């Protein structure tokens, strides 16, 4: 049947052949005679074509115009537009990535549930119908509370029947290149999903040791600077952090090995936390940074 459709609509493909980004430009049809569904480029369909196809097939998306929910932010993250002024109101924040089918179709309930969960003045934007980007401001640089992605995924599954993959990014500061951080984290999310297809939630730093071998040297260096939030240029700080790991996170021993006062050591460790938001007491975070620094520090 697809060959027949291709004769009429050259762009016709099976639905499962579409990437998340391509789905924005296709109209999707389902039928019991066509279990997998098929799609045709929206611009290739006239209104009469759509009506005729709808007689035999179910139209998945009735609306043809994709609305991101935040045009200014969509233009910044998904297109080549300038940085929105509204980003400057958040001194530091984290980006969370929610991906799954039917997110866009349930955007009202999804937005309300996510807002209630974080209990913060969040901002969100649909990058595609299947990818929602959520910005959550951090009220204090000393806030080390951990976001439980598994809990949120469970709530969305139980309350909205949504199967969602969630990726948690690192602490971001307003003066950083947020678009580049978004691209880096989105790529990490994609690689993490390919490595662990059965997992539903991913924390950025925990994935670093697994993703690193998949990257070329230039990409590894970019990941190194991303992970250290710009602190990679401060060789003295990186060296301190490296010895802290070698001393099994023992502050007294590290200060002794480096011949420095314990307060000086604490100041440097606090600086790392302030920039990255990494809790060094969490083994996955500490081990990930150790692997990254051990391999890539210059």
TrEMBL record:
Any Pfam family from its record, for instance, is HTH_30
- Which Gene3D superfamilies does the entry mention? PucR C-terminal helix-turn-helix domain
* InterPro entries in the record: CdaR-like_regulators (IPR051448), Homeodomain-like_sf (IPR009057), PucR_C-HTH_dom (IPR025736), PucR_C-HTH_sf (IPR042070)
Query: Any idea where the PucR C-terminal helix-turn-helix domain is?
Result: 237-292
Q: Identify the PANTHER family for this entry.
A: CARBOHYDRATE DIACID REGULATOR
Q: State the protein's name.
A: PucR C-terminal helix-turn-helix domain-containing protein
Taxonomic source organism: Salibacterium halotolerans
